[in-house]
Design brief:
Blueprint lengths: L25 E10 L2 E16 L10 E3 L4 E4 L2 E15 L13 E4 L2 E5 L8 E7 L5 E4 L8 E6 L3 E4 L2 E5 L5 H22 L8 E5 L8 E5 L4 E6 L12 H17 L13 H17 L5 H19 L14 H20 L6 H14 L5 H6 L6 H6 L6 H11 L3 E4 L3 H16 L6 E5 L2 E5 L12 E5 L8 H13 L4 E5 L4 E4 L11 E5 L9
Parallel strand pairs: 1-8, 12-13, 13-15
Antiparallel strand pairs: 1-2, 2-5, 3-5, 4-5, 6-7, 7-10, 9-10, 11-12, 14-15, 16-22, 17-18, 18-19, 19-20, 20-21
Helix pairs in contact: 1-2, 2-3, 3-5, 4-5, 10-11
């Protein structure tokens, strides 16, 4: 991810598939059971070896402890001086969330969620069995090595209409109720509109025990398990500005049960904007259609995505790499889906919508070799405005999009929000002071925290900000922007107050340009039929 964007939810990274171990020469059996402080996992190999390398390379194993005498864990492999065919590791919950990376082990109240693919070994087929003790439940009960598996108290599990929900006892009832009800409603809505009986029991796990630093994260694995993880005290009484993304969060993840499971995503790595944009836009439309959010809130969500895409693509000709990581895959992905939906409804006089496009594509994908960008674009209207966004000259892109949206009944006005002003100012200053690498910032419970690593001069070290030019970047972003703009116009240093009391001065030698940001002030209703 090249940059982290602003907003309490913009650091959210959602990933929608987990690779299972490839075909192998020998087999391994894996057993997991809960223990004080985490989970104990035992591997039994078909043949002795002196080195067993793990299949997953992106799994964090800092808190894995090998308890088998004579063996060590080093560079993603268990090694021993003498051949071994069995080893045991104690796994503690991960200490931090990492962008677009599955958590190896997370707490859910008194239970745990274990990432099965992280236990697989190179060159070996593996079967993972979770062994519950008295009073515990495990979900799922089959093919657990392919994704998340829950081990914990049976009383934390609720089942309804072929789906299951697991909640931590400490989670606020208002939060769990919203997500649980949304999850069950999503099964009904998507099942009716997208068809197809899911291959696994859909399972939602809600935890308020995330280690952070992001306020919340969510992901889905091939076992049909959705893990939603929340960090901080704000979830006892979520602030109003998170109401819309929180209301659509579980709907997004549930969409992935249809567009990311039981069907191959041809362009999952090179064009993730298709399946992520489909899930995010589908979530907004479904949430409006079922009364979770209203049309005004939906227009606000579209405004955020449209401006994020506008910022990413700018006026340059289209570059696919720009839509392969970060929140750009959600922002531009939603814009593509919105255009497709508006055009489909207009051409069919309201008889068809974006869910009809997805159902056609998913049905064909399951019957064939999956789906991808070519399949999706083949379903669009002739001369679709998607071509203006992705194929036409960059210099004419946004004027063209504005004109095409206007013809479809959308009115746009230039109205930068506090979030846009915050992002423009902080990214500009990071760019002025950082020499290399990815950089950005997070909205955390305590305020704004820079994500600057060690290559950003005086801004290095991921400081937690108290103020910039005397303004709180979390609550007074617009005034902060104009104060910074005045300093940069005079090539004067910008003064940061860090929450630990330090005062630092960052250079700003180039003008800070005001962000261009539309507001969607009018648009055709998004609500559609539920069957």
């Amino acid at each position: 991810m090249s940059m982290k964007l602003t907003g309490a939810f913009a650091a959210l990274a959602m990933v929608c598939g987990a690779a299972a171990p490839a075909s192998a020469e020998q087999a391994a059996t894996i057993e997991a059971r809960t223990a004080p402080g985490g989970v104990v996992v035992t591997w039994r190999l078909a043949e002795p070896t002196t080195r067993a390398a793990f299949l997953g390379t992106s799994v964090i194993r800092d808190l894995w402890t090998v308890t088998t005498p004579g063996l060590t864990l080093k560079d993603g492999a268990v090694e021993g001086a003498e051949p071994f065919d069995r080893f045991e590791i104690e796994i503690a919950p991960d200490a931090a969330e990492v962008d677009r990376t599955y958590m190896g082990l997370t707490r859910v109240g008194a239970g745990y969620v274990l990432y099965g693919p992280g236990l697989g070994l190179q060159g070996m087929e593996a079967v993972l069995t979770a062994r519950p003790v008295a009073g515990e439940a495990t979900l799922p009960t089959a093919e657990a090595v392919k994704g998340y598996v829950y081990l914990g108290p049976q009383e934390a599990v609720m089942r309804r209409d072929g789906a299951a929900v697991v909640t931590s006892a400490s989670a606020p009832p208002a939060l769990t109720g919203l997500l649980r009800d949304g999850f069950f409603a999503a099964q009904k809505f998507y099942g009716a509109r997208l068809g197809h009986v899911l291959p696994t029991e859909p399972t939602l796990i809600i935890s308020t025990d995330s280690p952070g630093p992001m306020s919340y994260r969510g992901d889905v694995t091939d076992t049909g398990v959705i893990s939603l993880r929340f960090h901080g005290d704000m979830w006892q009484a979520p602030p109003p500005d998170v109401a819309v993304p929180l209301g659509t969060f579980v709907w997004h993840e549930a969409f992935h049960l249809w567009n990311g499971h039981g069907v191959e995503t041809k362009d999952g790595e090179t064009a993730p904007w298709l399946h992520e944009g489909g899930a995010e836009y589908g979530a907004v439309v479904a949430a409006v259609s079922t009364g979770v959010i209203d049309e005004e809130q939906a227009r606000g969500a579209l405004t955020q995505r449209l401006n994020g895409c506008r910022k990413t693509l700018g006026d340059a000709d289209y570059e696919a790499r720009k839509l392969q990581s970060g929140s750009s895959i959600y922002n531009c992905g939603v814009v593509v889906q919105w255009i497709a939906d508006l055009e489909t409804r207009r051409a069919s006089e309201g008889a068809r919508d974006v869910f009809d496009l997805w159902k056609s594509m998913l049905d064909a994908g399951r019957a064939g070799d999956g789906y991808g960008v070519t399949d999706f674009r083949a379903l669009l209207q002739p001369d679709s405005a998607v071509g203006v966004l992705m194929d036409g000259p960059g210099a004419a892109r946004w004027a063209g999009i504005e004109a095409r949206l206007a013809a479809l009944g959308v009115r746009l006005e230039e109205q930068p929000s506090a979030d846009e002003y915050r992002a423009a100012a902080l990214f500009h200053l990071n760019g002025e002071n950082c020499s290399a690498g990815a950089y950005g910032f997070y909205m955390v419970e305590e305020g704004v925290k820079l994500d600057t690593g060690q290559t950003c001069g005086v801004l290095s070290g991921d400081p937690l900000l108290a103020s910039v030019e005397g303004h709180d970047p979390a609550s007074d972003a617009t005034a902060m922007f104009f104060a910074i703009q005045a300093r940069c116009a005079a090539a004067l240093p910008v003064r940061y107050r860090i929450q630990d009391g330090r005062l630092i001065e960052a250079k700003c030698a180039t003008p800070l340009v005001a962000p261009k940001a539309w507001a969607v002030t009018a648009a055709p209703p998004l609500a559609t039929r539920a069957t």
